[in-house]
Amino acid sequence: MSAVGAKSNASPVDRYKAAFDARWQGNDELTALRRAALDQFLSTGFPTQRDEAWKYTNLRRLETRSFTPADASALDAHQPEWLTTTGTRIVLVNGHWLPALSLQTAQPPGVTVLTLKQWLQREPAAVAAYLKEHDQLTGNALEQLNLAFFEDGVVVNLADNAILDAPIYIVHQSTSAAAGCMSHPRVMVRAGRNSRATIIEHYLGANEAEYFTNAVTRLEIAAGGAITHYRGQREAPRAFHIGHIQTKLAKDARYSIHDIQLGASLGRTGITALLEGSGAHAALFGLFTPMGNQHLDAHTRIDHVAPHTTSEEDYRGIAGGKGRGVFNGKIIVRPDAQKIDSRQSSRNLLLSPTAEIDTKPELEIYANDVKCSHGATTGQLDATALFYLRSRGLSESNARALLIRAFAESILSTIGLEPVRAALEKQIDERFKLANEAKA
Amino acid sequence: MLSIKNLHALAGEKQVLKGLDLEVGAGEVHAIMGPNGSGKSTLAQVLAGREGYTVTDGSVTYKGKDLLSLAPEERAREGVFLAFQYPVEIPGVNNVYLLKAGLNAIRKHRGESEMDAFEFLTLVREKMKLMQMSESFLNRGVNEGFSGGEKKRNEILQMAVLEPALALLDETDSGLDIDALRVVSNGVNSLRSPDRAIVLVTHYQRLLDYIEPDHVHVLSDGKIIKSGDKSLALELEKRGYDWVKQEAAA
Fold this sequence. Notes:
The structure holds 2 protein chains of 2 kinds. The relative contact order of chain A is 0.09. Chain A is α/β, with parallel strands linked by helices. Chain A has 2 domains: 12-381, no CATH class; 382-440, no CATH class. Chain A has helices at 12-23, 29-44, 60-64, 116-122, 124-134, 141-149, 383-390, 396-412, 418-431, and strands spanning 68-69, 88-93, 96-97, 111-115, 153-158, 168-174, 181-183, 186-191, 196-205, 212-221, 226-234, 240-249, 254-261, 266-275, 281-288, 295-304, 310-319, 324-333, 340-350, 356-365, 370-379. In chain A, the strands form 2 sheets. In chain A, strands 1, 4, 5, 7, 8, 10, 12, 14, 16, 18 and 20 form an 11-stranded mixed beta sheet that branches. Chain A has a 10-stranded mixed beta sheet with strand order 3-2-6-9-11-13-15-17-19-21, covered by helices on one side. Chain A has 9 helices and 21 strands. Chain B has one domain (2-249): P-loop containing nucleotide triphosphate hydrolases (Rossmann fold, 3-Layer(aba) Sandwich), CATH 3.40.50. Chain B is built from 9 helices and 12 strands. In chain B, a hairpin with a 2-residue loop joins β11 and β12 (223-228). In chain B, α5 (148-162) runs parallel beside α6 (178-190). Chain B is globular, with a radius of gyration of 18 Å. The mean pLDDT of chain B is 94. Classes of the chains: A alpha/beta, B alpha/beta. Chain A binds chain B through residues 382-385, 387-396, 398-399, 402-403, 405-407, 409-410, 437-438, 440, and chain B through 48-51, 71-73, 75-77, 81-82, 84, 87-88, 90-93, 96-98, 100-106, 109, 117, 141-142, 158, 162.
């Protein structure tokens, strides 16, 4: 691999062009698609803060680095702390599938789970057609970058009426071999009519490496389908993580995402929910906790395309040290989309005078018969509550951690899968040093 | 047990305590009465170590230690307990968690082992019975959605579980109906013991019908201007505070 994070004289986008030319040659349909995506990226480059969607998140630091595609041969099998041990587990290490850590289970009828590479090997034309239909020339520059460079990922297909009780657990692990590397994993979920499943995406790394994860997740939920989506981001401290999630909901489809951002030096999740059929419901829950010098951004967009659609959104940010958090929640109600019910709440907690959270609700309402509510607050730990806990014998640090945990709990409590919730609660407690003075 | 000498303190920037002296011995129950604004609550907050109150002169010695140099949690671990006038609602922090965390912190400080879950729950259930509280309160957020009376009961429940050496009750009777007052008073009376001191801060005499004090003090303009036995409280009830002030001024 090339020098870690080295600056070179070539312009940032030219370095990506060079990396592309070194990795992808040929004239097949997919490579042509990749090249078109790369050209799209090269023409715009990285988003800048002049771009409204990136107003509070500066990508210059990411842009100055040189990352090359991660090598599939440099995998070391290190078993992390799993969020759950049941269901199907697919582990990608530095963007490449690692069967040794994965766990295959027999799927019920109508459920297929493949790695993207497997699908590519079996049906290259179908993959190209899918990407052409769904991704070509849509999405922002970084989504185009993913399309240009993706190597592997996960494809989940649920036939009509397929019910999957056990979760599908997708782990994206980065090891120290990822230093100087980028990965562009893709997760694609196609849920048939009245199907139901739980998808867990877990991005993690515990090393000193500087690397770049640029992940795309696409979900399509057909009429009456229901997907619960957990997304935990706990990348290594020096990592860059940009995640793009887009979910399309047909009539009466239901989608909930629980977006927990803990790691990375610079992290962002961008979530788009398109409510395209009446009766569709999207619920977005998120927690981001920038500490130290972290920058964590939660960018959501709920698009009420069809009438009679509903959404709820509850995001909380906790920032300490010189941490910087961003919440941007856009809600769009299209001109003919009447009878919309939408609620949004953004609450933020600042733990130090040098921490900052920018919160920006954006409502674009073009219909008149709608109910949209939103509220945003930013505050500090309640001094009276802190004193109350200390007056009962709890140390100041433990009292603070307890109040932080209580603040986070309203998001964590939305996680219905008990082991996942317990694991994330533990990570939050470790992060804010909640000593277990009262283990039940 | 508690010796307060010439205590001067600011609440925010306002001089509220102006030379308060008080001696409280083990086994004693003291009532501090006084009109609004006399400094009763400030005294309770200063003793518990709340931020925003500044001691400008004087000393407070508790069990031979300089109480004012201790952090609030250190005071709690040394056996000082304040029952709040306005107990704080803390959604997301479990009532039972707080009880257990507090108790274990205090036990650890005393060099005792942590209580196991069974022992702890047995103790808590017994105390809840005393306070006539349903066990459903255990798994609710601290004081979350509790009525005024429930909050006060919860304060005394905490006190009964933590078993402090010095209990300070700040206007515990305010906002209680007569039944709740009886339950709360029973809880407090059950804690009377030869090695425990109780200081009641109250505006009204009626609490003292239920918790009989050994000593009654009148606090006015930041100082104790008269002390007596329980008959003083009855006299205050009949005659108000003005005559004491006039007597003190004379």
